[in-house]
Amino acid sequence: MIIETNTELLEYIPNVFASVIGENPLYDKMLKFLKVAELWLNVEVCDHATYSALSEDQKELAKRIVVMDAFHRAIPHLDLVLTPNGFGIVSNQNVAPASKERVASLREQTLLERDLSINQLVNVLHGNSTWMDSVPGRKWGKTIIQNLEISSECGEDAPSWNWYQAHIREIQGLQRMIAINFVSVAVMDRLRQSLLNATVTDIEARLIEMIRGFIVASLKEEQPTHEDLEKMVNYIKKNPEAFSEWASSDTALLFEDYTFENEKESKGFWF
What does the pLDDT look like over 191-222, one tens digit per residue? Predict the structure, then answer.
């Protein structure tokens, strides 16, 4: 367990406390949720092997993710009251519970803090060889959108894991269309890998920006144009050495300039 004690747990949620002396510590009440949250972290964000080698600051982000996710899961199962110092957790039936609205707001806040930490941690994990070969690293590397910031670009108030998950299939579909019909699968794969490796060049960054912009506009239903896609092709053609894979791809054949020659052997030959 990366959160091992009640004291450590309360470092991340200091305004929530057990208000009845002698009651079981909050850690005991949340232990099963902490275990689930840590398993979720290992599959979706940062595996255990990667976590073990992180800096202390990076581990702090991972711990905050686990605590916020666990608390979000646990809130419906806890007896919450609102006190002058924050939310209290009690088992005393004589104390009025916190309102549904305040509890809902608390749950929203836990998700906000969790997702901000996810975005920060994922951004610093790019270039980490252990993470890149892990289950979560390979998941993030499947698309050219490798952080949660796209949710803010599309109108959300802050980076959102739930928004990202709700739109990931659409993002993958747009990426596939752009790859097959315009930039080529080979170039798209290389861009994704460069992002994951944290080795993006200035020339690659410009193409990534164009692709990301098209995806964002599509998700916002702003109806990006075919010209936006053609600009990507023209950019690749202007930088043949930087995108050498494109020239030998099936996609490049779609943009070849054909010249019709009037030969006698042709069925449509004319004098």
Answer: 999 999 999 999 999 999 999 999 999 999 88
Q: What is the pLDDT of residue 106?
A: 80
Q: Do residues 123 and 137 make contact, with C-beta atoms less than 8 angstroms apart?
A: no
> Which residue, among 251, 258, 257, 248, has the nearest Cα to 229 in the 3D structure?
251
d(CA 19, CA 98): 14
Average pLDDT of 92-103?
57
Helix (H) or strand (E) holding 227, with range, is helix 226-238
pLDDT digits (tens, 9 = 90+) for 66-86: 999 999 998 887 765 545 555
Question: In 3D, which of 264, 235, 236 has the Cα closest to residue 248?
Answer: 236
Place of tokens 């004319």: 270
User: Where does the pLDDT of residue 256 fall: very low under 50, low under 70, confident under 90, or very high at 90 and above?
Assistant: confident
CA nearest neighbour of 139 among 117, 164, 120 = 164
Rounded Cα distance, 23 and 45, in Å: 34
Q: Which two tokens stand for residue 116?
A: 């901000």
- In 3D space, the residue among 34, 121, 119 whose CA is nearest the CA of residue 71 turns out to be 34
Encoding tokens for residue 131? 């993470």
CA-wise closest residue to 164 among 206, 128, 111: 111
Written as six digits, the tokens of 184 are 């080529």
Neighbours of 65 (CB within 10 A): 28
The helix (H) or strand (E) run that includes residue 83 is strand 80-83
pTM for the predicted model, two decimal places: 0.85
Angle of the 56-74 helix axis to the 100-125 helix axis, nearest 10: 150
Q: Lowest-pLDDT range, 41-50, 106-115, 166-175?
A: 106-115
Rounded CA separation 175/177 (Å): 5
